[in-house]
Amino acid sequence: MSGNGSKSKVGAVMVVGGGISGMQAALDLANSGFKVYIVEENPSIGGRMAQLDKTFPTNDCSMCMISPKLIEVSKHLNIEIISYADVESVEGEEGNFTVSVKKRPRYVNQSICTGCGLCYTNCPVKFQAYIETEETAKR
User: Fold this and answer.
1) For the segment 81-133, what is each residue's pLDDT rounded down to a tens digit?
2) In 3-state terms, what secondary structure has residue 24?
3) Which of 103, 114, 131, 136 could bond 85 through an S-S bridge, CB–CB 3.0 to 4.6 Å?
4) Is 90 exceeded by the pLDDT of residue 3?
5) pLDDT tens, 76-89?
6) pLDDT for res 6
7) What share of the chain is helix, strand, coil (3-state, %, to 5)?
8) DSSP string, 39-82
9) Considering the entire predicted model, what is its pTM?
10) What's the rounded Cα separation, in Å, for the pair 118 and 46?
11) Domains of the chain
12) Which helix (H) or strand (E) holds 28?
């Protein structure tokens, strides 16, 4: 405890869900000095807003609004994104939790991935698309 009665910032914070609210919460906490882990069940953060064309009621471009936040979260030194993962268990008490997170396999070696897309074009496996579009079968 510090002299003014507040606890010092020790440890880390986990935000479950990488939608627009989760990203904002993570940014607020990270900017306050906490190490933040975002755990997202989908392959990427952004949530439903990343899938929308426009927002109600202003009809603003969704990606125009969310892109700066996506960039800020991905570049923030105090934020680590754990995508395509599930929270398996939470144990402990207020201020002292232990969380088990299970990452799902991506089948791509991320340490050597250059983002060229060759693995996508050469992949023999197809599955149902995460976002329903005209092209529903994805690799």
Assistant:
1) 999 999 999 999 988 899 999 999 888 888 888 888 888 888 887 776 655 55
2) helix
3) 103
4) no
5) 999 999 999 999 99
6) 45
7) 25, 30, 45
8) EESSSSS-GGGGG-SB-TTT--BHHHHHHHHHHHHHH-TTEEEE
9) 0.77
10) 25
11) 12-105 (3.50.50.60)
12) helix 20-31
DSSP state of 29: H
Q: Report how far residue 39's alpha carbon sits from residue 22's, in angstroms, rounded to the nearest whole number.
A: 9
Task: List beta partners, residue 100.
Answer: 89
Q: What's the residue count for the chain?
A: 139
Hey, what amino acid is at 30?
A: A
31/15 Cα distance (integer angstroms): 14
H or E element in which residue 92 lies: strand 85-93
- Whole-angstrom distance, CA of residue 18 vs CA of residue 23: 6
- The β-bridge partners of 110 are none
Read off the tokens for 46: 């952004």
> How many Cα neighbours within 13 Å face the side chain of 83?
16
Tokens read off for 120: 């996508």
